[in-house]
Specification:
The protein is α/β, with parallel strands linked by helices. It contains 14 helices and 6 strands. Helices cover 44% and strands 10% of the residues. A 6-stranded mixed beta sheet has the order 4-3-2-1-5-6, sandwiched between helices.
Length: 396
């Protein structure tokens, strides 16, 4: 580059001024923190609405609507602050978890787990291992719209209870089949000391949970003399007088996670299950391409050996990082509170911050852009949140 020349801005000459773009960036971050991140088409519609309100016509935009290349260039210019990622949907009940509820949970946690060794704290949760290895990219002829591969799969799944302690120790899994009877061949070849059971629904009931406590949790805890803790969700199917009695006799206490909060407070949910299921799909795909090529689904007598292969890929580091991110070991409520939509962010604070930032830019008059941009974002949020007020008391 020649001396004295300036680096061109990514995407060429921009339609919006730098000040206007910075305000939009600030608003995008704010609505994301509120739990309503927007997609690329919504961003394009917001910019169109803003241009229309300002009475500004951009010839290269059809009907003032920016194209996909506008979004790409915009994200490239502000990649240090924004990223384009696949999002996860959560129910409104989960989004409604409040800081007060989390603080109350951690107030109790600080008292109960004070000076308790990591090995004495166990998190448990059940998950499904499905029969479908999922989609994958394949090589096919150019122009093929619907590439397909021959591989048997169903919507069937098997419930498995996993548990792990704060020091990274992973307890033996406990499998529950959907069946009337349990056969010996369904229990052979799995991870050492695994438990097996069956129910009509294929889900855990109070009997299965009681059996898991007696055959998996308590044998692990018997090596310790002091008080131990089981941390899990407060499902009614997990509770019974028999379970409470057995745990009291072994100095085992329960800590139940706040309702609808397991996506941010459950170590297994946060850091363990995702890599586990990635490994499961890879192992399942290999099996379906090999010995299970002609099987309609995974036979129950083959499931334990596949589970063993998956179990061998589980890493203690994932467990330890899960306990840390959930603020349990060490006890720290800040990372959990930070995951709540909108925590520490208010409408007035966000607006005044952006106004202050724009006002400090020399030679810029930003009152009108801020009002117009805020108006567009305000209408968007009203549309997104409208269902909360209209449908809150609705019953099916």
């Amino acid at each position: 580059m020649k001396k004295g020349s300036e680096m061109k801005k990514k995407g060429g000459q921009t339609v919006l001024s730098e000040e206007e773009e910075k305000i939009i960036v600030d608003r995008l971050k704010t609505v994301g923190e509120w739990g309503y991140p927007i997609d690329s088409i919504t961003l394009r519609l917001l910019v169109k609405e803003y241009l229309d309100r300002r009475g500004k016509t951009v010839i290269k935009f059809k009907d003032n609507l920016p194209g996909k290349d506008f979004v790409y260039s915009f994200l490239q210019r502000y990649k240090a602050q924004l990223s384009f990622r696949m999002c996860q949907n959560i129910k409104r009940s989960r989004a409604a978890v409040t800081p007060e509820l989390i603080n109350e949970y951690f107030d109790n946690l600080e008292v109960e787990l004070k000076d308790v060794p990591k090995s004495h704290i166990v998190n448990y949760d059940e998950t499904n291992l499905c029969d479908d290895p999922g989609r994958t990219k394949v090589i096919t002829r150019r122009g093929c719209k619907y590439p397909e591969r021959v591989m048997n799969s169903t919507k069937a799944s098997t419930s498995v209870m996993f548990a792990a302690s704060g020091d990274g120790t992973i307890l033996p899994p406990y499998v529950v089949y959907k069946a009337q009877h349990l056969y010996d061949s369904w229990r052979e070849g799995g991870p050492a000391n695994s438990g097996y059971n069956r129910t009509k629904s294929g889900w855990f009931d109070s009997f299965c949970f009681s059996d898991w406590v007696e055959t998996v949790a308590l044998p692990y805890f018997r090596q310790f003399d002091s008080v131990k803790y089981l941390i899990g969700d407060n499902l009614s199917s997990h509770l019974s007088l028999d379970v409470i009695k057995k745990c009291n006799e072994s100095k085992v206490k329960f800590i139940f996670l706040p309702s609808n909060s397991t996506h941010i407070t459950q170590p297994l949910d946060v850091a363990f299950f995702r890599p586990l299921k990635i490994s499961w799909r890879a192992i399942l795909k290999d099996w379906k391409n090999g010995p299970g090529r002609y099987e309609a689904t995974v036979p129950k007598d083959k499931f334990p050996s596949l589970l063993k292969k998956v179990f061998e890929t589980c890493k203690p580091d994932n467990i330890i990082s899960g306990f840390k991110k959930c603020g349990i070991i060490p006890i720290n409520r800040k990372p959990v509170l930070a995951m709540l939509p909108g925590y520490g962010v208010s409408d007035s604070a966000a607006v005044s911050s952006a106004q202050s930032s724009a006002a400090n830019t020399p030679g810029t008059v930003c009152e009108i852009p801020i009002e117009a941009i805020d108006s567009c974002f305000k209408e968007l949020l009203q549309q997104l949140r409208q269902g909360d007020s209209q449908n809150r008391g609705r019953k099916e």
